[in-house]
Amino acid sequence: MKAFFKSFFASLLALMVAGGMIFVGFLGLVAILGSSGKPTVPSKAVLVFDLDTSLSDAERDTEAGEALNEVFGGGGAHSQALPAAIEALDRAGNDARITALFLTGNLQGAGPAQLRELREAIQRFKEKKPVLAYNLGWSKRDYYLAAGATTVFINPFGAMEVNGLASEPMFFGEALKKYGVEVQVTRVGKFKSAVEPFITDHMSEPNRVQMQMLLDDLWGEWKATVAKDRKKSPSELQAIADEQGIVESEDAKRLGLVDRIAPYDEVLDELKKLAGKESKDKDFPQITLATYAGIPGDAKPGKTRIAVLVAEGEIVDGEGRSLQVGGERLSRELRRLRLDGRVKAVVLRVNSPGGSAAASELIQREVVLTRKAKPLVVSMGHLAASGGYWISTYGDRIFAEPTTITGSIGVFGMLPNVKKLANEHGITWDSVQTAKLANPMTLARPKTEVELNRIQGVVDHIYEQFISKVADSRKMKKEAVHEIAQGRVWSGQEALKLGLVDEIGGLGSAVRYAAKMAKAENDFYVVGPEHEQDPFKELLKNLGQGKSRKLAKAGPVEVLTEAFKLQMERLSALNDPRGVYARMPFELDLK
Q: Is the pTM of the predicted complex or chain greater than 0.85?
């Protein structure tokens, strides 16, 4: 036994020493990175925009655990904040050190409205300098950005998608029944179909109708934009989608969808020429868009502060996590901006499918109070639906892109119970209570008729409040709002016709309008929320910059796993204290 303890403590000591050495080495790496100078822009550099990224409307506040996973575990694609990317592209267009823009890679996640804003920035760059775009396989997302480039390349072995849009939601209703989980629902609005994946195995007819109309609007905008870029007609692109779908490189060139068929080395030669180098040179001056975006520009800021506050993700009760809109957190940030005399106007950027009705109301109250104190303009991104519209409707002016998904004015309650599942495994409950409605949110049993009626009454009341607030803020009659509500989603271009938004435009348009309201059109600068910097997370972020790319296209098992994981994450975000939600009626997963 003595020998065992001696060996054990010797091993433990060795582990502690090794751990200490690793930690010291880590601190050394911190010192090296911390002492390194800031990046500089080389002369005649090519600005490289690797599309293998995930676009977000705000700088993502990565949790330390997520950052560690990305560095050491090979996490997902890099995240790029859309406003920062747009600002960098506009600045690079006027930067004499930048000679061209190179687009390549495959976007991992971005909504149509975000793509439109990014594409417009790329086109503004193209008016001043050449844009080269290359890919082995062009997806619809990437091609939408690149179709108007100076030169669009495709690899000889490549192919591209011109196959229309599809959405294929997953349904768990029968699976939940099979495993003994019952879900009861209360809702208002025949189009409010957010609960369908958990209670049935197919789309309802109203949901199918609204989804078809929305996809038609999004596909129509894609065709119109690409057709203009490639000097074709939308009907020609529709014929390609109906007859070919996946277009091989030779056909893509013949049809005028690309300009050149070339392997990657020949594209690099073209980039070398633009950078003043020759083919025999091993490298050429270049800088990534992410790095360039982090280098401050030379322009002097104006005098008037315009604050941009981003509401991105599911709306949840409380503070919320990364990529969630915490009702308490966003309300506090709005309140700070309202009370800050240095801020003369606020732009609320909304990219949210909604969520907790209580949290949405908490945020809306601060929107109303802020608007009384100073101008508050809303910019809708990819999604501003249900609770996302709830927090938007009182803006002084609402901007949306034609492909923004908005509306969904409706409410639902979802009430699961696991009685059958638990009973089959020998788990039971018993209870005592002092009133019929003492425990309506229990998971131990189905809800009684009295409980369901009461919960439905709460849902109906909140829906009426939603309708009344929209009618008041948009200066519409309640009957007119009810007609276009019912939980139905609309594209931005349809929302403009219906009076739910005021103007078509992106974040830049909203900022300029806010500056105009603040009487500072030509003398303003934009500020974001104030966050304390975390040096440890910044270090991890820098360490992760050199990661190898993830798979350009996920395999079928990964797709299925991610879809299931996403649904579970959305379920975990349903934390409204009354179990009532103002959330988009379906998950739009464009394929």
A: no
